[in-house]
Write a structure and sequence with these properties.
Layout: H1 2-16, E1 31-42, E2 47-63, E3 67-78, H2 82-88, E4 92-99, E5 102-109, E6 119-128, E7 131-145, E8 149-150, E9 152-169, E10 171-187, E11 192-197, E12 200-203, E13 205-206, E14 211-218, E15 221-225, E16 232-242, E17 252-266
Parallel strand pairs: 2-5, 2-6, 2-7, 7-9, 8-9, 9-10, 10-11, 10-12, 10-13, 11-14, 12-15, 14-17, 15-17, 16-17
Antiparallel strand pairs: 1-3, 3-6, 4-5
C-alpha cells in the first residue's frame, strides 16, 4: 500500500513540476510575463527570518549589512495574450512584515492559473550573517542557500528541493516530496530530517552525545561523516555501504529508508 501511495505521488510530481506538465499537450505556444520589485529593511541582528510561499524558488544569501533585502519576481506562463497574463499577475501577492529583529515574508500565487508549473514568485533574499533562526515553508519549487549559514533551521516542504552550501546548527526538516543536499557543516544534536519521497545527502560533523534522525519513505540516504568521529549508527533499510565500526558511542544516528539504499562513508 505504501508503495502504491509513493508511486502515485511520483507520477503526480512529474505531471505538475515545471518542465514536466501536460499543459502544452495541444501545442499552443506559451509566453511568460514577469514583474519585479524589491524591498530593503534595516534590522538589528541576530535575525529571525520566516519565509513562506506556495510556488516559486527561494535563494538565500548573507552579506555584511545589518539589513535584509528582498528581490521578488512574479512570473506567469500561458497561451493567452500578454495583457491577459499581466492582469493575472495582479492576483499574486507578497507581504513583508517586521517585528523587532524578526522578519516575515509571505508569497501567494492566485489568479485562476491551476498548473503550478505556470506560476511562481521567485525570491532572492540577502540577510545579515548573524542569524538566530530561519523558518521555511514552500509548496512547489526549490530552496538554495548560497552562503554559509549558522542558525536553527526549520522547514516544512510539500514538493521542493533544498540545497545548502554549509550549515552550522540544529536542523528540523519535514517534507512530502523533498530532496535535501548539504555540502558541509556541523549538525547539532536533535537534528531531524523526515521526508516521504526524496533523497537525503549530508556531509557533516555531529555533536558528541547528540541524537539524530534521517528518514525517507522512498529514496537514497548518503551520509558523509568525519573519519575520526565515533558514532553509533542504527540503520533500517538496504545498507549498501557503511564504513563505520559499531560501538557503544554516545552519538547516536538513526537512518531509515523504506525504498532505497543507504550509504554511510568516511571523509
Amino acid at each position: 500500500m505504501k508503495y502504491k501511495i509513493a508511486l502515485f505521488g511520483m507520477i503526480l510530481y512529474i505531471l505538475t513540476v515545471p518542465g514536466c506538465s501536460k499543459a502544452n499537450i495541444n501545442g499552443e505556444p506559451k509566453i511568460e510575463v514577469t514583474s519585479y520589485s524589491e524591498k530593503l529593511i534595516e534590522v538589528k541582528p541576530p535575525l529571525n527570518l520566516d519565509l513562506s510561499g506556495d510556488s516559486g524558488n527561494m535563494e538565500i544569501y548573507t552579506w555584511d549589512r545589518n539589513a535584509a533585502k528582498f528581490e521578488m519576481t512574479k512570473a506567469i506562463k500561458g497561451a493567452q495574450k500578454k495583457d491577459f497574463l499581466e492582469k493575472k499577475l495582479n492576483g499574486f501577492s507578497t507581504a513583508i512584515t517586521q517585528s523587532k529583529n524578526s522578519i516575515t515574508y509571505r508569497a501567494s500565487c492566485k489568479g485562476g492559473i491551476k498548473n503550478p508549473g505556470d506560476k511562481r514568485i521567485d525570491l532572492k533574499v540577502y540577510i545579515p550573517k548573524q542569524v538566530q533562526s530561519i523558518k521555511l515553508k514552500l509548496d512547489t519549487g526549490c530552496i538554495k542557500f548560497y552562503d554559509d549559514i549558522k542558525c536553527r533551521l526549520d522547514a516544512d516542504i510539500d514538493m521542493a528541493s533544498i540545497d545548502i552550501n554549509r550549515f552550522d546548527g540544529l536542523m528540523n526538516i519535514k517534507g512530502d516530496m523533498c530532496s535535501l543536499r548539504m555540502g558541509s557543516g556541523v549538525l547539532k544534536g536533535g537534528s531531524n530530517v523526515t521526508v516521504n519521497v526524496g533523497s537525503i545527502e549530508l556531509k557533516a560533523q555531529f555533536e558528541e552525545n547528540g541524537k539524530y534522525n534521517f528518514e525517507t519513505g522512498m529514496g537514497n540516504i548518503n551520509l558523509s561523516i568525519p573519519s575520526g568521529q565515533n558514532v553509533n549508527l542504527e540503520c533500517m533499510g538496504a545498507v549498501e555501504t557503511n564504513e563505520f565500526t559499531p560501538g557503544p558511542f554516545s552519538t547516536r544516528i538513526s537512518v531509515k529508508s523504506g525504498m532505497g539504499k543507504i550509504f554511510i562513508r568516511k571523509y
